[in-house]
Design goal:
disordered N terminus; Peptidoglycan/LPS O-acetylase OafA/YrhL; Acyl_transf_3_dom; Acyltransferase_3; 15 helices; acyltransferase activity, transferring groups other than amino-acyl groups; transmembrane; mainly alpha
């Protein structure tokens, strides 16, 4: 899921000279040292929005509710789609901010920061599952050392994509790590591609290329769709990349227009008008559409066009959260409890809820008690993970970034 949705990193000020202003042969951008702009300071691309953090919390809650009570929120897995768009937006914003500030994207720095943010908590989870599988007789984790290995190496989505019929028990108590694998595979490829695009093309051309790339996964889904291809489409990196790329495109549009107040005002106005429509549409999907089960008429449409549609809806909401902090939706999602959970615990909640659910499910408890144990256990483990593993390494990541 999602996400592996790390808290948004602190955005720094965009440099004061537009890298697009200096070009070499064929319009190639020539990086230049930051200079002070006399007229005004350049606008920072600020992704530290409490509303974005709150959206993370809502998305994580939708996924957990779907797994716990699919009768109440059958389409709650749409939270993963929301996480994908958020991740693409935040990561691209940080990359283009670094590019404008320094004239380059340092891949080693990026990968180290992603490793420090995402890997340790996942390794803790996978290590514990493997230990329980090898050293205890707990039925929920029997033989799960292989699932832990597949999750830790970010290939769960590949395993699940290759299963044409009902999912087998290969991933056991860690099937939800498929979304972490999709994001990690994207993180490996996207910085390299973006660095090449920014180093060779004008920003308008970059927007056109990325916009076209957003349509490619939809074409792939249309070409390969049939009933037996549902798992391939749902778990494939190539068939889900458009959701991340739509977030990337939004970040690139805002970067390209960062000094165009009139254009940003138009985006802010239209996004503000459509934000509630987009949010309600995503909510209706979560409430009424069983995404991972067959629904007459809706399933083919969702598995071909639906993924792109929900990414566009999420981008609309993101535009409001970043550009208009006074919008009612921004105020709602920025409520301190939501923002706090989204920033600190959303990743851990997503990681831990499913293994806890797998174990509690073997106890044959009444549903109310089961829900209390899963939610309470997920919050407890996510809190411990954040305090003992994630926060110390976040500090190291920040020191590394400063260095």
């Amino acid at each position: 899921m999602p996400s592996s949705a790390p808290p948004p990193a602190q955005a720094t000020d965009v440099p004061t000279r537009d890298a697009r202003s200096a070009t070499g042969p064929r319009g190639r951008a020539v990086p230049s040292a930051p200079q002070t702009r006399s007229a005004r300071a350049a606008r920072p691309l600020d992704v530290r929005s409490a509303g974005v953090d709150g959206l993370r919390a809502v998305a994580a809650g939708a996924v957990i509710t779907c797994h716990l009570r699919p009768d109440l929120l059958p389409g709650g897995s749409v939270g993963v789609d929301v996480f994908f768009a958020i991740s693409g937006f935040v990561i691209t914003t940080l990359l283009v901010t670094e590019f404008e500030r320094t004239g380059r994207i340092r891949l080693r720095r990026f990968y180290t920061r992603r490793f420090l943010r995402l890997m340790p908590a996942l390794m803790l989870l996978c290590g514990l599952v493997a230990l329980l599988a090898l050293a205890t007789p707990l039925r929920a984790f029997e033989g799960q050392w292989m699932a832990a290995l597949l999750a830790a190496t970010y290939v769960a989505n590949i395993v699940r994509a290759g299963q044409p019929g009902p999912y087998d028990n290969t991933m056991g108590s860690l099937p939800h790590t498929w979304s972490l694998a999709v994001e990690e595979q994207f993180y490996l490829a996207w910085p390299i591609a973006l660095r090449a695009l920014l180093g060779r093309l004008r920003s308008r051309t970059v927007l056109a290329v990325v916009g076209a790339a957003c349509l490619v996964p939809t074409v792939v889904r249309l070409v390969i769709w049939d009933d037996d291809a549902a798992h391939r489409i749902y778990n494939g990196f190539d068939t889900r990349a458009d959701q991340l790329l739509v977030g990337c495109l939004l970040a690139l549009v805002l970067w390209h227009l960062r000094d165009d107040d009139a254009a940003l005002a138009r985006i802010r106005t239209w996004a503000g008008r459509l934000a509630w429509v987009a949010a309600v549409a995503i909510g209706l999907v979560a409430w009424r559409l069983r995404i991972t089960g067959w629904v007459d008429g809706w399933t083919p449409a969702w598995y071909t066009f639906g993924f792109l549609a929900v990414a566009v809806l999420t981008a609309t909401v993101l535009a409001v959260l970043v550009l208009d902090r006074r919008h009612p939706l921004s105020r709602l999602l920025a409520l301190p409890p939501l923002a706090w959970v989204g920033q600190r615990l959303s990743y851990g909640l997503y990681l831990w809820h499913y293994p806890i659910l797998a174990y509690v499910g073997t106890l044959h408890l009444v549903p109310q008690v089961e829900v209390m144990l899963v939610v309470g256990g997920a919050f407890a483990m996510a809190g411990l993970s954040y305090l003992l593993v994630e926060r110390p390494l976040l500090r190291r990541k920040q020191r590394y970034a400063s260095a």
